[in-house]
Amino acid sequence: LTGLSVAVALQAGLFNIGAAGQLLVGALAAAWAGALPGVPERLHFPFALLVGATAGALWAFVPVWLKVRRGAHEVISTIMFNYIALYLTHWLVTEHLKDPAGDAPQTAVIAEAAKLPLLSQDFLSASWGLGIAILAVLGLWLTLYRTVWGYETRATGANRDAAEAAGAPIARRMTEAMLLSGALAGLAGAIEVCGTQYRFFEGFPGEYGFDGIAVALLAGNHPALMLVSAWLMSALRSGAYHLHAETGAPKEIAVVVQAVLILYVAAVYLRKRRLEG
Question: Cβ(143)–Cβ(8) under 8 Å?
């Protein structure tokens, strides 16, 4: 999902480095919504996911507004918002949303109705968040390549001046793409809370936001290829932990392999552009 987040922004010509911060904000919002009393049981986990996605989209709004209205570079502003999200969520989880039943800086466990059920009780421990992610891949592919909105968004990313001359509302498309990008990252955080962790805590795994950059670049920003690149990156991360446990090899070997893969893809792309003149 964070790969899709980075990809949809890149399709509009925006480099969203802020998926990590948007994921953290979405996760904390989903943890708050998941523990909220009085929500009907059938609507609790959709409500928590929606709150998380909305929080991620709102967190992406200010950087894109600065980009569209003031010309501020989105790379700088989204990186700054990552740090704001990190320390804001830390403050909230230690001062205002802390579980009163414990001393650790973490929220209360979400309600049972807000938890995503497992795909299988026997052999697959993944939750239905995996199915939501696959549906997001399909939906984004259809939106980008089978709708007028997707065509105008991709045209904006390919050549902003030409798209504007052809009548595309580039400011609106950039804003909408960035909001969708933030929503996908926030949804990723919400699924991590509702499907795996069941609460937000200090040190929540925000590195998935940065992994999404590698996933998107390796897939060439194509939603369909994102499934393969995301599986590859997750296999590398999981395998690195097992490798470290079995042989003592450093876990960072997975990061090295990721970097080599991205450099290889970039080299192939540059060679293709050079051959095309």
Answer: no
β partners of residue 201: 106
Residue 99 banded pLDDT, cuts 50, 70, 90: confident
Q: Which of 163, 238, 220, 148 is nearest to 3 (CA)?
A: 220
Mean pLDDT, range 149-174, rounded to an integer: 93
